[in-house]
Amino acid sequence: MYVHVRKSGQNRYVYIMEAYRNSEGKVAHRTIEKLGRYDVLKQKDPNFLEKLKDNIKLRDQFPHYDKIEQENRWFEEQGLNLSYQQGNSLAYCGMPVYAYSDRVLRQLFRKILNLEYVLTYMQSRAKEKFDFNLATLIYHRILAKLFSGSDCVNGTRYSFIGDVFDLKDEHAYLPQVRAMIGAQQERLLSYLLKKAANEARLPEIARALSELNEPTLKNFISSLTSVPQDEQSQKLLFKLKPFLAKFSPKPASAELSGQSFLNEFEALVSKAMLEIIRRALADNGFDYTLSEIERALRHALMTVYIPPQAADDTLYIKLANAYTELNNRILEAFGFEPPLNCSRKNDLQRSLKIKYCSNRDLLGALVYDRFVIPYEDAKEP
């Protein structure tokens, strides 16, 4: 690795680069991390460039192995205990546990179901302007539902590689979110079913409608049959009719009668995501139940080791368990590479397709600021 300063327009930018051999065997170069504008970094610390170069040298002193067995032996030689017991939310030296399977869910939400675009467009059309991002809040609430009981959860704080959030901080926006989603019930349900029908098994998605409250389901069925539909919607309605005819929803209980459509919509999205994952696995010759897939997602975990002599060279350590093989298959089914048992930041970025994230972005500001020892402090006696 090396430091490269590149001019773009009127400014210069600082990058950490890496040389490698491409598929043709030729030497090529790729960006590991974009640090920002040279003048801004220099204003914060006039000696930042020299410190950065020294830090790169320290990073390169750490051994890099191609085989997992070699890395495990290196960890044993360092006296690092990487044992992990289920139910322990602090895996190593009090460091939190992070989930990495949300990279698949993020792709499902953003690119396959295209919900980020739909919700962002919906928010842009609202008369009132809000300080929150509707798509992000709903996505976080869906993660909270899927990862309930996972060791990556500590109270209301959820730790994912590259996405650490606290639901408590987002709770204040809940009334506005419910209002926006509730005003578009039928349109959102129709859109979700069309997308899910293309990506997963229609019967399972259709049966998920029976989980809706009676008023919501009746309004949706009424909208499908009374509102003019495009050709795709008409085909969907034709396929849905056999399932809709069997639905006889019971009146919502007192407990459920106050349940908002937001919760129902999030539950349907979760169901659709799991069904799409199950279909992708089936296409690759693997048969798993939804409950097995959901448990595997919750157990795709890693912790971190931050060596004090080179605090920026954080090691991301995958925690092995009974679901590791299934999680590897889920990642591969959607174009990701399973992380190594021990990954450095650039290895992890490549396998999980994360671009230009610093360790602070991957770990979250709270953990980074608490545990990462600044370079200049590490040099003091």
Protein described:
There is one protein chain. The chain is an alpha+beta fold and 381 residues long. Among the domains are: 1-61, no CATH class; 108-148 and 169-290, no CATH class. The protein is 51% helix and 15% strand. The chain has 20 helices and 12 strands. It has helices spanning 38-44, 48-61, 68-77, 102-112, 115-124, 134-146, 167-170, 174-182, 185-199, 202-207, 214-226, 231-244, 254-257, 261-283, 290-298, 324-333, 345-352, 359-363, 365-371, 375-378; strands at 2-8, 11-21, 27-37, 90-92, 95-96, 98-99, 153-154, 157-160, 163-166, 301-305, 315-318, 342-344. Strands 6-10-11-12 form a 4-stranded antiparallel beta sheet. α5 (115-124) crosses α6, α6 (134-146) crosses α14 and α9 runs parallel beside α14. The longest helix has 23 residues, at 261-283. The chain is globular and about 70 Å long. Mean pLDDT is 76; it is low at 80-92, 250-259 and 375-381.
